[in-house]
């Protein structure tokens, strides 16, 4: 064949490639990372605390808390495969082993990764996630489930799987936490889907807010890539979370950095009304307005631990005294809310105006939530 013959078009490299597996392999791994990102977004919507790890015992591991004493775990093996739905035979077929390597079946490898491990009793679920789906007969005819637990399988199917695992690994009961999941993240175009889910999450958490979803996506996926390549083990849980985990506070910090909540300008007229209620002179109005802007920036952009603690205490004070505002107006409310805050929190504010501004900000935010 004459490989020097010219092809129509402007690309001088428009010839059949010797190797295309690299791009396909990259896409398979990228799918795992994007599935992890979407799992993080789901956890962020529903949980107050979590940590997600990439390439730690399994492809994706979710901890239900950053407190190791109460954390439970969700192990996920994630496969982006173009094939017919996996059957019981596919799941339990053991590839031929080489002289150097003993191989396991798909399911055997998963179970091998958790059996006799110290964390096995802390598993909420052991999930096999595959884009091709599963062809496993259900206990109830006609059911088509996206999440199949052990209890959903037909008794004969369950017996066959158990017998195959016993033959492969020795007598070992199938984990009750085992599940088979057909994901809702498509096998291609998953990048755009992830960006869309970021926009949806922001809209749920802060309706009407403007966010740069593409930038949030890039920052989060880059962080997952970086942490996924960390191959070291960590004795201390705190070090594991710091170096290999993605937590709620990590995600919140990124989202806050590239999201503008409604805009501080939405409070302008209400702020003036409260100033009038407080009978503040112009110099005090300027000081409180500047403190109001500083507080807005601290909770939207900085999100330090102190800022988070301050905001929680201020919100609690506002909630406890909101009826006073509704019955008597801003002046009595702000005085009472200020006194009801812990002294340690009051000391975190630079001056009286800063504390007043924080209370006014959270009051107006609460009013706009209604």
TrEMBL record:
- What residue stretches are annotated with the CD-NTase associated protein 4-like DNA endonuclease domain? 21-228
Q: Which Pfam families match?
A: Cap4_nuclease
Q: Extract the GO molecular function terms from the UniProt entry.
A: nuclease activity
State the superkingdom. Answer: Bacteria
Q: Mind telling me what this protein is named?
A: DUF4297 domain-containing protein
Q: Provide the taxonomic classification.
A: Bacteria, Pseudomonadati, Pseudomonadota, Betaproteobacteria, Burkholderiales
């Amino acid at each position: 064949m004459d490989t020097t013959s010219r092809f129509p078009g402007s690309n001088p490299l428009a010839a059949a490639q010797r190797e295309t597996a690299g791009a396909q392999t990259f896409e398979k791994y990228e799918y795992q990372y994007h599935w992890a990102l979407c799992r993080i977004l789901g956890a962020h919507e529903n949980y107050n605390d979590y940590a997600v790890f990439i390439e730690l015992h399994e492809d994706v591991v979710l901890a239900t808390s950053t407190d190791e004493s109460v954390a439970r775990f969700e192990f996920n093996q994630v496969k982006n495969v173009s094939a017919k739905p996996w059957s019981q035979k596919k799941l339990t077929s053991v590839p031929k082993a080489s002289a150097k390597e003993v191989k396991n079946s798909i399911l055997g490898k998963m179970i091998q990764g958790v059996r006799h491990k110290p964390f096995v009793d802390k598993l909420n679920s052991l999930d096999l996630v595959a884009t091709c789906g599963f062809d496993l007969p259900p206990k109830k005819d006609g059911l088509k489930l996206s999440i199949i637990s052990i209890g959903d399988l037909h008794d004969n199917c369950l017996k066959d799987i158990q017998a195959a695992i016993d033959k492969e690994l020795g007598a070992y009961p199938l984990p009750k936490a085992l599940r088979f999941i057909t994901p809702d993240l498509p096998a291609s175009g998953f990048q755009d889907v992830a960006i869309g889910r970021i926009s949806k999450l922001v809209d749920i958490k802060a309706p009407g807010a403007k966010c740069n979803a593409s930038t949030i996506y890039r920052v989060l996926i880059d962080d997952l890539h970086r942490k996924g390549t960390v191959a070291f083990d960590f004795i201390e849980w705190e070090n594991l979370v710091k170096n290999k985990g993605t937590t709620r506070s990590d995600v919140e910090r990124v989202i806050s950095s590239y999201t503008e909540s409604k805009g501080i300008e939405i409070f302008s007229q209400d702020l003036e009304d409260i100033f009038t209620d407080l009978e503040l002179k112009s110099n005090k109005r300027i000081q409180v307005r500047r403190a109001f802007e500083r507080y807005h920036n601290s909770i939207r952009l900085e999100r330090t631990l102190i800022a988070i603690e301050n905001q929680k205490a201020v919100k609690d004070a506002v909630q406890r005294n909101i009826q006073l505002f509704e019955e008597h107006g801003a002046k009595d409310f702000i005085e009472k809310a200020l006194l009801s805050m812990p002294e340690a929190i009051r000391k975190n504010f630079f001056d009286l105006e800063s504390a007043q501004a924080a209370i006014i900000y959270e009051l107006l935010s609460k009013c706009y939530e209604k």
